[in-house]
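the three lines:
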Amino acid sequence: MRKIARLSRFNVASLALGLAFLYLPILILVIYSFNASRLVTVWGGWSLRWYHEFFNDRAMIEAAWMSLRVAVSSATIATLLGTLAAVALSRGERFRGRTLFSGMLYAPLVMPEVITGLSLLLLFVALNAERGFWTVTIAHTTLTMCFVAVVVQSRLGSLDRSLEEAAMDLGCDPVRAFLSVTLPLIAPAIVAGWMLAFTLSLDDLVIASFTTGPGSATLPIRIYSEVRLGVKPEINAICTLVIALIAVVIVIASLASKLSSSQGESVAPL
Amino acid sequence: MSARRIFARPARFAAIAPYVWMVLFFLVPFAFVLKISLSQTAIAQPPYEPVFDLAAGWGALKAAFAALSVDNFRLIGSDDIYVFAYVRSLTVASAATALLLLIGYPIAYGMARLPKNWQAVAMVLVIVPFWTSFLIRIYAWINILQHDGLLNQILLALHLVGQPVVWLSTDTAMYIGIVYSYLPFMILPLYATLAKMEPALEEAASDLGAPPWQVFWLVTFPLSLPGVGAGVLLCFIPIVGEFVIPDLLAGSNSLMIGQTLWLEFFTNKDWPVASAAAIVLLVVLLLPLLLYERLQKRQLEQGR
Amino acid sequence: MAGTMADELPNTHVATKAADGDAVAAGRPLLRIESVVKTFGTFRAVDGVSLDIKAGEFFALLGPSGCGKTTLLRMLAGFEAPDEGRILLGDKDIAQALPHERPINMMFQNYALFPHLSVRDNIAFGLKRAGMARVDIATRVSEMVALVKLEGLEKRKPDQLSGGQRQRVALARALARRPQLLLLDEPLAALDKKLRESTQGELMELQRRLGMTFIVVTHDQEEAMTMADRIGVMKSGKLAQVASPRELYEAPRSRWIAEFVGDVNLFDGESKLRDGHRLVIGTRDAGALVVAEPREPIGAGKLAVAIRPEKVKLSRRGPVSEAGHETAINRLDGVIADICYLGGTTTYKVKLDTGGTLQASVANSARLDVDAYSLNQHVVAWFTPDDCMVLQS
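prediction for all of em together
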């Protein structure tokens, strides 16, 4: 029998080009963030000048701090709610309102952000809520808990149900069985869900623009208003810092999940 | 009662908190969008009327209902700006999705054919850029595409062009940005179906006399259609409502609906019209949204 | 209920013995299943099964896939609740009790070992739930580890074990709580043939040593015959026959069971005449056959005569005639149509002159093939009336 070559030259080329396309722009951005020249495009030697500039930019720092706070709190609440939702959907069998529930959870995954943002703003205005940290946190929680639910649900779905049965057989009531067997096994997915929620929140511009109030801009809102005015080297530095932060979060989280589970399962970040 | 049902009883209690949250912050807001889309614009804060005042009793409520109007929808239907924006959004989304499929498929296919341990590495490599901020990735392209950016410098150095080409504020730049941002969303579902495919199927097809291109068209591609469907929907739907990419990379003479909505809302402060535009956008996306939901459900719940 | 059981658990060994003693004294079985019905939608997975299991018995539920044997087992474990009927353990109806409320443990088909816990923690899992003291848990775990010969592997995680070792961990984990009844769902299905055979022996030895009651579900009749004291054969949700392995093989109650358990030659026919304690049955494919009258009276109508292949003897000229028996022996002439050499035995397919085919399994008692028959050779196949089974069609 003639065997097809597993990996043709075409496969290799498309992979290499695809990855280059994905990484080169980011790489260029990182390199230019260390450019000493004020002109973004002229290489003036290595320098940390723009990082310095960023750390002296009070407004920017405040926005970054706001973004971090929102990201951590919304990711934490979203992980809690999303995990609960995933458990209900994958273990609750049929219950009243299930279709509506799953519909509400899956829709925000692809719903244009302008609609989600607009609708939440109208709610906050109607409630006469003061817009700022909490409104953005609530908005981000609503969006990101859906992503957490999907990540955790897919892990729950692939989990062998007889493990839970074995726990019950060995004397656990359903809640104990969940806590002592299911939860440790889905922990990596929960960690991945938190990471996803954290970065999505840190990343979001549109929903935050709708739901925040004057004087409490998030980092993406500040970056966006700067970028609209043109390229600035300082933005390169901020972006590089954000990338570094996210990289650190990914590394820590994947190390943590590797320690918590020695099953050799990798944490799929999506 | 079965084992699953023993577990189901407490599991259902887990639904309460997220359920309440989603009703409060997802469903109820839509009711507000719907209501305000039927209201009149007013120069006030908030800039619309009428507002329901439940304290005023049934009579006031009836009056409020009487004041609701479909004028905003009539405006959207008759004003070229909106019609064009919807048409442009759908065209851009279709073209970009086609491009994404064309570019994403070979990459996903290449990934699926890598040795098993390399596949995991490739997957991480594809996902990592997705974790870096959306805005940053667009900004990275502005860096490259600007008047004296890297691309023009390279083109000039190679004498491919005589003078700097205008890239920014063009559709080309916008398509590059969209493809760049959404590529992982296309690759991952495609890769997932391609990697699950039994390699023996392709070997059997070639064993039965099919040349490589026929193996691909008659076996591989048809079997990867679920992944194609997921990838297409996962890209198409959000691109229709995209705001940031066209705003930063495309020209300002023809707007997509996301931009129009944003403009209507923030610049013109016409919340009722913006709400009506959002409702129409939802209606336009209803079919793909439902399709996507069914796919998602089937995928997540197939193990049940 | 869970509380009281948990409190008693460290002493269940004693308690179980006492309960068993009472049950035996009262002449009651350990487990009594009474007309249990379980439906899934319109499908009756278990359809009115009644069964008694004695304390200390090794019982096997045997049947093809989809016959309801696993559903029945899961009802005993508490993962399914019967729609009708009772399940009595001792004198308590446990039909609606939750899994963790039953003094019954199960060894799962894929073992269901907790991947995040070590061998030790897997075995200790059920003991911790029972609120056993830490010291007692440690003692019990090392007892169990020794019992299943896993010394030195206590700290391993399940994915660092071989298939056979995993099976032992699953067994130790289920036995650790000293359940009154151990359920085993296809316990050996995941092992290869050689390991399966040795493990069968170990399971039997263990069960005898602990004096425990085992119920095993299997689709492998050889496994059931090897291990079990009694076998319940299930077909479409019903118990077709409950009997010892020997009785099941030599006196199957129906044509279906005869075919399901082992190989068999079947000849359809009708009862012709009675001659003392012998019956003559006229068959279409093998002519008139003389059979011993079965213990249970046979009704009129269509019958089948069944003969196990190893009961059929072959010779070149027929049996050496014994005075008086000559007429009673069934003699069939034919030609060897197919030869299947299996090592210990050879199976010959004999095309009978009367039209049918007969399988004969002959022990290869000599190394050289001087006694073997060749294709198309004319042979006489013969068997005694006592070797024939008469079955209602």
